[in-house]
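Hi there,

I know you've been waiting on this one. I reran it after we fixed the sequence typo, so this is the corrected version. Both the input and the resulting structure follow.
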Amino acid sequence: MSTLSRPPAVRTAPRSRRWWLALAAGAVVVLLVAAGVALLLTRTRGPADFAPSFSGPDGLVTNEYAYRHPDRPGVHRSDDWQVTSGSLYRRGGVAWTGTPDAAAPGVDSSTGTGSSVFRMTSRRHDFENVRVSLRLRNLGLTDAGREAASETDGVHLFLRWKDETELYVVSLNRRDDRIVIKKKLSGGDVNGGTYVTMGQAPYQVRTGAWQSFEVAIATTPSGGVGIDVRQDDRMLVAATDKGDSGSPITGAGAIGLRGDNCEFEFDQVRVVTE
């Protein structure tokens, strides 16, 4: 008479041991996820490639006189910025345009700022796929500058600036309460170029209050150029230059700021390569 053999008993770990093994495995997963997140953050929020300081005594940093006459005695030169129009000051640890007027600044901008037409670019021209963050305080507009008042008066950020005829511009503050992304290409009647509007949205300017912006620019896999503007992690406007109105502006360039009939302060400028 045959008998059925009983299968060998399966040995199981004590319940307490199984609990500790599960806990250890969970901890490993958490650590791996945390490491992955940290790596991702390191890639997207790495140390700034450009973070100029505005600390120091109040006074003139540089001006258009220094740009036009770099070899004359007493000129104020900045290692970070080149001002081709107007004057750049340091006041209370932040950068300031001074009170805008229509003057032609001298060596010390003592008889006027000329900052109703303010143009400033970084000396570095190696910024391509980057994220630019800054704080901005609009102190008010004027109607008594070098140029007549316009709906586009305000504060504008330059990206991939090659020269005054080839660049991207993001209007952060405008008299008409719009935020606008534009491209400027060589050839035309606007200081040698032509502007093309890529995208825009309503934006109420808060005069006298600090505003934080983060602007990203990157060449897309298809060869276009995407730009987005955020404030406190909220998307304000985004656009992609697909080349429909002239070739996209690729390659590196300078960053910069422009002011039209506007007095403003700015600080915490930070550029991170994406």
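Quick highlight: The mean pLDDT is 88.

Best,
R. S.
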